[in-house]
Amino acid sequence: MGERVYGFNGVSPSAGKPGRKRYAMVIDLRRCTGCNACTASCKTAYDVPLGESRIWLMEAEVGEFPNTKRNVLPRLCNQCDQPSCIRNCPTKATFKHPDGFVLQRYNRCIGCRTCMVACPYNARHFLPEHRRDPRNPRNVADKCDFCIVRVTRGLAPICVDSCTGGAMIFGDMNDPESEVSRVFLENKTFTLRPEQGNAPQVFYIGLNEQIADPEFAFHHRSAQLHARYNTFKRNSEVGGEMAGNIIDTDMGFFGLVRQALRNYKTFFKDAPHKIFRGLF
Amino acid sequence: MEGQIIANGFHHAYWGFPIATYFWLVGASAGSFVISTLGWVFGVKKYKPTAFFASNMAIALLMIVPLILIIDLGKPFRFFHLLMLPSFSHWSAPMIWGSCFILSYPVGMMFYSYFVYKKNEKWARILGILAVVLALCTHWYTGVVIQLNPSRLPNHASVAPILFLTGAYVSGIGLLNILLWIRNRFVGPKSQVSSGLIADMARLMLYGIVFDLFLLWNEFLQMTYGLGEEHTMLYDVLLGPFRWPYFYLEIIWGLVIPLIILIIPKINRQLFWVLLASFMCATGVYGMRIWWVMASFYYQGHY
Ligand code: SF4
Ligand code: SF4
């Protein structure tokens, strides 16, 4: 492995370098059926805790009947070339691999969650105290790693492998003959939130501006989803990372007090676990 | 978007009330320390009696702060990773700058307190200057930590550190006034702080309140002329989920009512009203901390 990159110069560390890979992904939204196979396979493969995902789908229905359309958007860590998560991580726990992966070192992460605050794509999540397999890391940040364990062994990432519509194309951008380079050059591609300047390495074909806009996503959730979202937050008991979740139908004065108490309850309930059990 | 239910694509707020409390405590500490140095560093003689108490109060507040921060980490025993420059820590992260400040600031304050206690003018002055700079930096960095996240729109404003410092100044004086009054009931008449001095400090607080309102006014202006997300913010702070912490607690309870109390000439030197205004200011700033920490998670959470 080459040197780890913590820098912030906006250039892929391996771009155009002979003998180096520059892994990237193109997602052809015209072919995505919204089947969630990527979500399910990734969750199974990596023991992603309940309530979190490394790859997930956003869906939005636009238009009036009968002229309606359902837009789907698979979302994952964009393995940015200019990643704000790395810039803001205080302990070098997350770094850019010269081949393009943005990776996480569990043994160095202190669980401060600064990287999650910094990521514009909400691509990071927190690993709770209780894991299905107790040997797995706990109380640290985690993210999609482009399946580095599979890719370095010559396999495609598991979401790409399981994609039923063949919408995801993964490969080495340094190789002009690779499928991903050809698809990238032959089609008009878009990235999410380009104004954030993160230089994402996941490119979309046929990206609908309505679903790509966080403001649109914020306003166009249905009332049912909104209610379920709040119920989820109210009942989730996963751990301290839930603290501070705002149940926005309960934001009167007493609601605010309730939420503060609920948050402190989790804080104090988690503290002994974190201090005595999760020592190292 | 119902697919998000199946996919569990929910995003959580990562920092919560403990971090808001931490910001509030650091702010109150910095604010009261600034008052403490007025007499010994800046030569305003009449504030000298408060210096020792204010400085000790700042130290006491700063003893609680690292506890909250460290317990809030996922791995509390790894906090030393923050201090291992340069192999472990990452210089570009604002949290590293803050760790350096938070460590050196109490030490500076303790030396200052010692020299004030010994009535050593020269060294109290030198260490006071050093510690007051560190106090400002410690609180400046809390603003910067959440300012330097370009995607979190409500926070990504260059006014953030100034707003934080103003809030710190106001809440520090407010808390100090309350605690001085409580102290007066336990100490002999010779070391009591006169109510005239408390009223003078409330006058200092008044300047902070006016400046804070001015900054908030600019924030409002930016929201009204902003893009989509800023309009959502404007709605939410006035009528939506954040009306309590931001509008009622911070602006009305924490700034406007104390402002009115402190500019009415009949009552602005009466102990009861001054203490009431101080209490309102100190608690109102907590609303600002809640809004600044949590609002950004709310907006991006659905993306
Ligand atoms: S998408 Fe987020 S987590 Fe992934 S590299 Fe970019 S900033 Fe980091
Ligand atoms: S949670 Fe871990 S990876 Fe994220 S910023 Fe903190 S130390 Fe770095």
Topology as H/E string of chain B?
Answer: HHHHHHHHHH
Radius of gyration of chain B: 20 Å
Instruction: Give me the count of strands of chain B.
Output: 0
Strand content of chain A: 15-25%
Broad structural category of chain B: mainly alpha
CATH fold type of chain B: Formate dehydrogenase/DMSO reductase fold
Compute the separation of the termini of chain A in Å: 26 Å
Estimated helix fraction of chain B: over 70%
- Give the cofactors and ligands: iron/sulfur cluster
The total beta strand count of chain A reads 10
Structural overview:
The complex is a heterodimer of chains A (280) and B (303). Chain A has 2 domains: 23-217, Alpha-Beta Plaits; 223-276, no CATH class. In chain A, a hairpin with a 5-residue loop joins strand 4 (94-96) and strand 5. Chain A has 10 helices and 10 strands. In chain A, the strands form 4 sheets. In chain A, strands 8-1-10-9 form a 4-stranded mixed β-sheet, covered by helices on one side. In chain A, strands 2-3 form a two-stranded antiparallel sheet. A two-stranded antiparallel sheet of chain A has the order 4-5. Chain A is globular, with a radius of gyration of 20 Å. By secondary structure, chain A is α+β, with helices and mostly antiparallel strands. Chain B has 303 residues and is mainly alpha-helical. Chain B has one domain (2-300): Formate dehydrogenase/DMSO reductase domain (Formate dehydrogenase/DMSO reductase fold, Up-down Bundle), CATH 1.20.1630.10. In chain B, 73% of the residues lie in helices and 0% in strands. Chain B has helices spanning 3-7, 17-40, 48-72, 94-117, 121-147, 160-184, 195-224, 228-238, 243-263, 271-300. The longest helix of chain B is centred in the C-terminal third of the chain and has 30 residues, at 195-224. The N and C termini of chain B lie close together (11 Å). Classes of the chains: A alpha+beta (280), B mainly alpha (303). The interface between A and B is large, with 86 and 68 residues. The complex binds iron/sulfur cluster (2 copies). Residues 89, 91, 93-94, 109-115, 140-141 of chain A line the site of one iron/sulfur cluster (SF4).
